């Protein structure tokens, strides 16, 4: 009996110490809030559309409220104010007004997908809570802006007294994901073993529904939720249930610079470009298979096209996917027809886009599709997945003219590739011109205007 009392005393003492530490940290953070805006973006070198949004958002804040410090929470230990400012220009053509301050994070491993082979969503989400705690203890701002989709950090930021603003690219969980598990469809986020089992699928659906409830609860802590497309807006409003605080702000696309490129393209060796990070959901293998089918069915009098994969690698898993893609190209005997461009500079990306007749995009339920808009602005006819952002917002008719193609299967993608290659030059130029006009709806300037309009009420009512 005495031993049990000792154990309970030790446990109670440990819990009391932990709660005291948490309370003191929160009190200290709330009393020492800085006059600044802190962006929670643990990966400042991912090179994707999310990073472009980060730098454009920083610039918008600098223009809107020059008296506020801009701070970046990052797990990239080599990042410095000057290097990040230079990166914004070199990779995205975004010129910040002044270098942002940097707060280095050392607990980023807790949001790495490799840490959680199973229950990845809940693992990464809880890991983000730990990471945000580190961030907010080091620097507590007036305004906390999440640009990476870590909704579980919002209650933590509220505890520290911050106004919480987020720009959500993609809901962590969606009704579409639940439906696919219910239908036992195997995908990158639904293992074949689970898809084949009714019992395991039922367990996963239960897990998804529970997570969806948790996600909806933490998301509702945001004072302002900006979303990047009609598709994302419908899901976020359904899950978070804060429609009055949810605003659609289309992401910034470099339409002005790309629209200066000539629409005429070399026909001797037409290029088809694919711009996307080497992540599993980007469906690079599907694109490669479709290109292979198109090559096999290519008319004898047409020039042989080339496929250019352009993207960045965030980690070892992405590097492995890129190598597997190269191996697949060799297996399909396409090594001479496929190029791989990793981590290219912005000026090099512009050059590649300016030489492409078509741009291919393969992700199912792509929240928006910045790369699709960039294709259109550059004069490359898009071939996008027939779902979500591209279907609902982007690849729509402009002035009654077709602006591109939508596809789902390998055969549909291959057919679209062949249609563009067989298209008379006058028709291609007409479609490319219509696509370019459509892309003008998603300019960087439009993002700056809509972003500032959304955050202005929050910034003007600082507590």
Description:
By secondary structure, the protein is of the alpha/beta class. The chain is 49% helix and 14% strand. It has 18 helices and 13 strands. The protein has helices at 2-31, 49-64, 81-92, 120-138, 154-159, 175-182, 192-195, 198-219, 230-240, 255-258, 284-296, 316-331, 346-353, 370-378, 388-394, 410-422, 425-439, 444-459, and strands at residues 34-40, 69-74, 101-104, 141-146, 163-168, 224-227, 246-248, 271-275, 306-311, 338-342, 356-360, 381-385, 405-407. The chain has a seven-stranded parallel β-sheet with strand order 3-2-1-4-5-6-7, sandwiched between helices. The chain starts with a helix and ends with a helix. The relative contact order is 0.11. The mean pLDDT is 90.
Shape: globular
Mean pLDDT: 90
Q: What is the percent of helical residues?
A: 40-55%
Structural class computed from helices and strand pairing:
alpha/beta
Treating each run of at least 4 consecutive H or I residues as one helix, how many helices? Answer: 18
Q: Going across the major beta sheet, what is the strand order? A: 3-2-1-4-5-6-7
| Rg for CA atoms | 24 Å
- Which band does the percent of strand residues land in? 5-15%
List the uncertain runs. Answer: none
Q: Could you give the distance between the termini? A: 52 Å
The tally of strands reads 13
Could you describe the largest sheet, including whether it forms a barrel? 7 strands, parallel
Quick tags:
6-stranded parallel sheet; globular; alpha/beta; 7-stranded parallel sheet; single chain; 13 strands; 463 residues
């Amino acid at each position: 009996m005495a031993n049990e009392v000792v154990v309970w005393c030790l446990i109670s003492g440990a819990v009391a110490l932990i709660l005291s530490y948490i309370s003191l940290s929160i009190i200290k953070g709330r009393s020492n809030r800085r006059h600044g805006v802190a962006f929670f973006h643990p990966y400042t070198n991912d090179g994707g559309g999310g990073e472009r949004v980060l730098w454009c958002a920083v610039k918008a804040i600098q223009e809107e409220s020059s008296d506020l410090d801009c701070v970046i929470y990052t797990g990239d230990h080599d990042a410095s104010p000057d290097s990040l400012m230079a990166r914004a220009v070199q990779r995205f053509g975004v010129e910040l007004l002044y270098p942002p301050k940097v707060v280095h994070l050392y607990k980023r491993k807790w949001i790495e997908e490799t840490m959680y082979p199973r229950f990845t969503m809940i693992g990464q989400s809880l890991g983000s809570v730990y990471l945000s705690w580190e961030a907010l203890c080091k620097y507590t701002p007036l305004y906390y802006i999440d640009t990476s989709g870590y909704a579980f950090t919002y209650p933590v930021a509220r505890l520290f007294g911050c106004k919480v603003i987020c720009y959500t690219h993609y809901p962590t969980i969606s009704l579409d994901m639940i439906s696919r598990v219910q239908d036992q469809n195997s995908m990158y986020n639904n293992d074949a073993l689970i898809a084949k089992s009714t019992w395991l699928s039922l367990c996963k659906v239960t897990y998804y529904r529970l997570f969806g409830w948790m996600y909806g609860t933490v998301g509702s802590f945001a004072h302002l939720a900006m979303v990047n497309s009609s598709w994302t807006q419908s899901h976020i409003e359904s899950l978070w249930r804060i429609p009055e605080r949810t605003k659609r702000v289309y992401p910034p696309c470099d339409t002005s610079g790309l629209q200066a490129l000539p629409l005429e393209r070399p026909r001797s060796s037409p290029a088809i470009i694919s711009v996307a990070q080497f992540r599993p959901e980007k469906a690079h293998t599907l694109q490669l298979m479709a290109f292979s089918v198109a090559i096999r069915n290519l008319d004898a009098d047409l020039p042989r096209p080339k496929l250019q994969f352009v993207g960045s690698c965030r980690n070892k898993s992405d590097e492995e996917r890129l190598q597997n893609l190269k191996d697949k190209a060799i297996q399909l005997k396409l090594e001479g027809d496929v190029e791989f461009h990793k981590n290219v500079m912005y000026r090099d990306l512009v050059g590649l886009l300016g030489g492409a007749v078509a741009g291919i995009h393969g992700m199912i339920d792509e929240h928006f599709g910045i790369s699709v808009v960039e294709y259109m602005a550059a004069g490359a006819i898009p071939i996008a997945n027939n779902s979500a952002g591209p279907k609902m917002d982007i690849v729509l008719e402009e002035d009654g003219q077709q602006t591109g193609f939508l596809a789902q299967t390998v055969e549909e993608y291959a057919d679209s590739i062949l249609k563009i290659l067989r298209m008379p030059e006058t028709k291609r130029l007409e479609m490319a011109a219509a696509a370019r006009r459509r892309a003008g709806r998603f300019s960087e300037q439009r993002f700056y205007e809509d972003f500032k309009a959304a955050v202005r009420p929050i910034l003007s009512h600082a507590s």
